[in-house]
Each structure stands twice: as structure tokens, then as C-alpha cells.
Amino acid sequence: MGARSESYAASHQRGVGRRQASLGELQEIQLRESDVITFHNYTWPEYFKRQVSWLKKYNRPVICTEYMARPVGSTFDTVLPIAKEERVGAINWGFVAGKTQTYLPWTRGSIRTF
Q1: What's the CA gap between 102 and 42, in Å, rounded?
Q2: Where do the DSSP E strands lie in 1-114?
Q3: What's the pTM?
Q4: Fewest C-beta atoms under 10 Å: which of 4, 20, 53, 83?
Q5: How far is CA 69 from CA 4, 13, 54, 111, in A?
Q6: Cβ neighbours of residue 19 closer than 8 Å, sequence gap 6 or more
């Protein structure tokens, strides 16, 4: 790709579970050309760590922009120590008492789209 004047970040959403999904050509380009890689992870801490390790192979800053799913062990006390150890950013935006009620814990069947 040619030189660009703006930073580019790609959000990686595949392979967050037990195994990494194979990537298509577009996903490979996104990760390879990104200045920063962001991802979501709502799984067990060991899968969080596995995904982080896999994304770090691209030698870019990595930021988890969504996590916290208490029923599967994705909590502050399980994710943040791993993020700190791996030097990965972790952003939580969910303490908003608004229309989507993201400050409430998830339970099976409680997630709705508005």
C-alpha cells in the first residue's frame, strides 16, 4: 500500500474463543497495515491472553476496546492483570446508566438491541 497521512486502526473480531479463526485476505491486510490493533473479547481470561499473544505478532500497539462479561469470567480482576502484564490497553465504557443499561451485569437472554 502507498504512504498515508492518517493513522489506521483495524478492529479484529475473529477468533476470540478457543481457537483462532483463519483470516481472509481483507483481515490480513487490515492487521498488517494497521498502526494500532484493537479488539473485543468477552471470553474467559485464558482466551483473552491467547488472543493478545496472537495479535502481538503484528508488532503493533494492541488495545482491547470492549470486555467485561461476568458470566464467563471476563471481569476487571481477571482481565486487567493480563492486560498490564502484556502491556495491552484496556478500555471500559460500560458504566453508563443510559438507554442500553450497560452498567448492569449480563445474564442469558438479557442482551437486547435497541
Answers
A1: 14
A2: 9-12, 36-40, 62-66, 89-90
A3: 0.73
A4: 4
A5: 37, 16, 21, 11
A6: none
